[in-house]
């Protein structure tokens, strides 16, 4: 990494710190803890369009200003595994008519564990001939990547050669947690910064006890490591593949105090208020829980007003946000009942303007 890139990274991070400090200023927030990213090889996922030119074929990206396409041989933000795969994969596909015909996109999902899924997207249906060639492709790639899977996608078609997930192994405070990350589902893109986020959340909840409620829990990224500090954890999430992955993750981390339920945040709020019952909550008596703490990690839109009011019932709120504007809007409501006691900036998305923030609130 050239020195001027490092300087550019630091400058952009400083700008994010100053922007978040300004946004949080009106909530009497304490000083931010800042968790920088490595400035290279931080993304565990990357997607590229594919360009065909005579016998050649290569990854392309688009210049955001001019919209012009440009050729991409390697992509420094992506993990080292993805960078190596980009080269080896195209060397194998370029001379292979069956694998290259109408290929228009390649998606890579890698893991710190070394596992990788490569999805090849086509503008044509995939037949048994394609499958045989994809199988040989997987075998050839496995000399570089022992745990690689290939997925072929076309209209209404998904052919899996191996798995449609990677098994990630995240080191958190010296302990390793196992996570199934499913292709095409939400996972935190920057694995190392994600570990810092989990460690920060663990630090927030360390002095607490009772039960934890997590909303927008994905595959249990926070619920699973945080479970050691609570008697019971309930996580809720809307996406079925993530809920299924979470069940796997509970089992493979040997936890017996975590339950994940497939419910939208809005539905869970209705259930908590006794306004609606859900068969998906069968066997779970919400009134038996002693929720002291809630962790929310919503999408960019933030929390809906009913869920926001519902989480004010808890003494401690850990709010992880990928959009500081909606975070600030939500804090206007939460700070009528709670104080901000810890804040953090996690640089999940280096070299972009995106900010990932953490806020711990406790009841006034
Ligand atoms: C920012 S991600 C966080 C996931 C998880 N906490 C993690 O760290 O991997 C937001 C999650 O909210 C889920 N989601 C989106 N809208 C939702 C809703 N209305 N109710 C519940 N979950 C929702 C998405 O499927 C996604 O998994």
From TrEMBL:
GO CC term (a single one): cytosol
PROSITE patterns: SAM_MT_RNA_M5U, TRMA_1
Positions contributing to S-adenosyl-L-methionine binding: 188, 216, 221, 237, 297
Tagged with keyword Translocase: no
Keywords: Methyltransferase, S-adenosyl-L-methionine, Transferase, tRNA processing
Gene3D superfamilies noted in UniProt: 2.40.50.1070, Vaccinia Virus protein VP39 (3.40.50.150)
Catalysed conversion reaction: uridine(341) in tmRNA + S-adenosyl-L-methionine = 5-methyluridine(341) in tmRNA + S-adenosyl-L-homocysteine + H(+); uridine(54) in tRNA + S-adenosyl-L-methionine = 5-methyluridine(54) in tRNA + S-adenosyl-L-homocysteine + H(+)
Active-site residues, as the UniProt record annotates them: 322, 356
GO biological process entries: tRNA methylation
EC assignment: 2.1.1.35
One GO MF term attached to the UniProt entry: rRNA binding
Enzyme class: transferase
One Pfam family named in its UniProt record: tRNA_U5-meth_tr
Superkingdom per UniProt: Bacteria
PANTHER family: TRNA/TMRNA (URACIL-C(5))-METHYLTRANSFERASE, TRNA_TMRNA (URACIL-C(5))-METHYLTRANSFERASE
Annotated function: Dual-specificity methyltransferase that catalyzes the formation of 5-methyluridine at position 54 (m5U54) in all tRNAs, and that of position 341 (m5U341) in tmRNA (transfer-mRNA).
Family: Belongs to the class I-like SAM-binding methyltransferase superfamily. RNA M5U methyltransferase family. TrmA subfamily.
Name the record gives this protein: tRNA/tmRNA (uracil-C(5))-methyltransferase
Species, as recorded: Alteromonas hispanica
Lineage: Bacteria, Pseudomonadati, Pseudomonadota, Gammaproteobacteria, Alteromonadales
Gene (UniProt): trmA
């Amino acid at each position: 990494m050239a020195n001027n890139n490092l300087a550019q990274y630091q400058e952009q991070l400083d700008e994010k710190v100053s922007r978040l400090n300004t946004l949080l200023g009106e909530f009497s927030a304490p000083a931010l803890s800042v968790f920088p990213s490595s400035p290279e090889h931080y993304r565990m996922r990357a997607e590229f369009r594919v360009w065909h030119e005579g016998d050649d074929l290569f990854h392309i990206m688009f210049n955001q200003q001019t919209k012009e396409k440009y050729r991409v041989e390697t992509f420094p933000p992506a993990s080292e595994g993805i960078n190596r795969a980009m080269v080896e994969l195209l060397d194998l596909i370029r001379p292979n008519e069956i694998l290259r015909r109408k290929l228009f996109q390649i998606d890579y999902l890698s893991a710190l564990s070394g596992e990788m899924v490569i999805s090849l997207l086509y503008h044509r249906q995939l037949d048994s001939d394609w499958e045989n060639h994809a199988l040989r492709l997987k075998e050839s790639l496995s000399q570089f990547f022992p745990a690689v899977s290939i997925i072929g996608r076309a209209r209404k078609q998904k052919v899996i050669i191996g798995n449609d997930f990677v098994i990630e192994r995240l080191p958190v405070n010296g302990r390793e947690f196992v996570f199934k990350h499913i292709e095409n589902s939400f996972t935190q893109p920057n694995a190392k910064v994600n570990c810092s986020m989990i460690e920060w959340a663990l630090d927030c909840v360390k002095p607490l006890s009772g039960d934890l409620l997590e909303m927008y829990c994905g595959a249990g990224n926070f619920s699973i490591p945080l479970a050691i500090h609570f008697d019971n954890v309930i996580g809720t999430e809307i996406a079925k593949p993530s809920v299924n992955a979470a069940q796997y993750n509970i089992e493979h981390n040997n936890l017996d105090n975590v339950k994940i339920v497939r419910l939208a945040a809005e539905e869970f709020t209705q259930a908590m208020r006794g306004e609606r019952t859900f068969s998906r909550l069968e066997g779970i008596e919400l009134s038996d829980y002693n929720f002291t703490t809630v962790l929310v990690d919503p999408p960019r839109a933030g929390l809906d007003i009913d869920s926001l009011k519902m989480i004010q019932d808890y003494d401690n709120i850990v709010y992880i946000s990928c959009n500081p504007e909606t975070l600030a809007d939500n804090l206007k409501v939460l700070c009528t009942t709670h104080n901000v006691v810890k804040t953090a900036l996690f640089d999940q998305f280096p070299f972009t303007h995106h900010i990932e923030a953490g806020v711990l609130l406790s009841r006034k």
